[in-house]
Write a structure and sequence with these properties.
Distance between the termini: 35 Å
Order of helices and strands: EHEHHEEEEEHEHEEEEEEHH
Number of domains: 1
Largest sheet: 6 strands, mixed
Number of strands: 14
CATH class: Alpha Beta
Strand order of the largest sheet: 5-4-3-2-1-14
Oligomer: single chain
Radius of gyration: 17 Å
Structural class: alpha/beta
């Protein structure tokens, strides 16, 4: 499967501008044969705290509806996250007691929303606006006979998440992020480690540019199940692509049977 990561500079709080730009870059990836396309974390708005109520979305999520149209037209898979607002939920975010907000990951397959994942570990300032989800499960794609393990940014630092997704049957690990300077070394080391220890391919898609709070180094990667970096971005806007061999995991797990040799009874 040919995978693409869209490393884009997210214009702060400019939703329609970002969606248009993301789909333009996705169209370029499609023209080069991409079947699975990954956008960065909250790619349509960035962390738009000052206007979060205006930019947050309710079901059926207008941004996802737009992406579904693109996905249907091009028969492709799209992965990313948006700011979700859930009204009248029991655990309102501290910032606004009438709503709770989630950093909601999504996976769209051939025009249909295959599944969502709410970021379970908000980081830093996010904690003042976002609630953490309480479920970590991979997303099953029926048409492509593929299971996606999706995690979001800070969660790269929690090996338990990638391991749980792998144990639950994930074929590919996808991390979408706004990982900022000066943590490029952490990003690369952790992203490669998650692939090696779980013996699955890892698409780690970061953003470029800057927002009012941080600057971003980019550094998106597509890593194979051996932990080899097959495609890597610099710090600017770009598209990286690689053909992922879905048979590789089985071969590696036979050669190095980490999952068979686990001792969950003692850890």
């Amino acid at each position: 499967m040919k995978a693409a990561c869209i490393q884009m500079d997210i214009r702060h709080c400019k939703k329609q501008t970002n969606i248009n730009h993301a789909l333009l870059m996705a169209g370029e990836a499609i023209s080069k044969g991409a079947e699975l396309i990954v956008f960065p974390e909250v790619f349509s708005t960035g962390f738009c705290y000052d206007n979060i109520e205006e930019n947050a979305e309710y079901t059926p999520y207008p941004t996802i509806e737009t992406l579904c149209e693109f996905s249907k037209e091009h028969n492709c898979i799209l992965i990313g996250s948006i700011i979700e607002a859930a009204e009248n939920e029991k655990a309102a975010a501290p910032h606004d007691q009438s709503y709770q907000y989630f950093n909601m990951g999504f996976c769209i397959e051939s025009g249909n929303l295959a599944g969502t994942y709410k970021k379970t570990h908000p980081f830093g300032q996010e904690k003042s606006y976002f609630c953490g989800g309480d479920t970590i499960l991979p997303i099953r794609l029926e048409k492509n006979d593929l299971t996606i393990g999706l995690e979001i940014c800070y969660e790269l630092r929690f090996p338990e998440i990638a391991r749980k997704l792998s144990l639950e049957g994930a074929d590919i690990l996808v991390t979408i992020a706004e990982f900022p300077n000066p943590r490029e070394h952490h990003w690369k080391t952790l992203a490669i480690a998650r692939a090696i220890e779980n013996q699955i391919p890892h698409i780690a898609c970061n953003r470029a540019g800057e927002d009012p709070y941080s600057t971003f180094f980019g550094g998106s990667m597509i890593i194979d199940a051996w932990g080899e970096v097959k495609a890597q971005a610099d710090d600017g806007e770009c598209i990286i692509m690689h053909d992922i061999d879905m048979r590789e995991t089985d071969n590696i797990r036979k050669a190095i049977p980490v999952f068979d040799d686990r001792r969950p009874d003692i850890y």
